[in-house]
Amino acid sequence: MTSTGPTRVCFELRVAPDLLDEYVERHTPVWPEMLAEIAAAGRRNYSLFLGDGGRLIGYYETDDDAAAQAYLAASPVAARWEAEMARFFVGLEGRPDQAATPLAEVFNLEAQLASAGETPSTEESDAP
């Protein structure tokens, strides 16, 4: 199956449990200049989800993940942000934005509906 839409990237990191509150505070809000760099890199629909024990799941969409990674790797703003964020993560070597390993996507509703020749619907069905 060939994808015609954006690349969806999901990754997992582990935040040190004793630093969870500070990690959340640092993201409420993120520096405006860092937000601008993320957008300029071509990442959109970017979210982070925090679970029990410091499990952090990130998700974003982009048209060219390699170009987005390269842009952020060269960004002085991102370098400063990532240097400050590095201490929050457990078992990670290097910059968090460059060292996180993407998770494999095994299911996407829209892609499977398109492959089956159907379109997603948000309307309620009249069936009982």
Automatic annotation (TrEMBL):
<protein>
    <submittedName>
        <fullName>L-rhamnose mutarotase</fullName>
    </submittedName>
</protein>
<dbReference type="Pfam" id="PF05336">
    <property type="entry name" value="rhaM"/>
</dbReference>
<dbReference type="InterPro" id="IPR008000">
    <property type="entry name" value="Rham/fucose_mutarotase"/>
</dbReference>
<dbReference type="InterPro" id="IPR011008">
    <property type="entry name" value="Dimeric_a/b-barrel"/>
</dbReference>
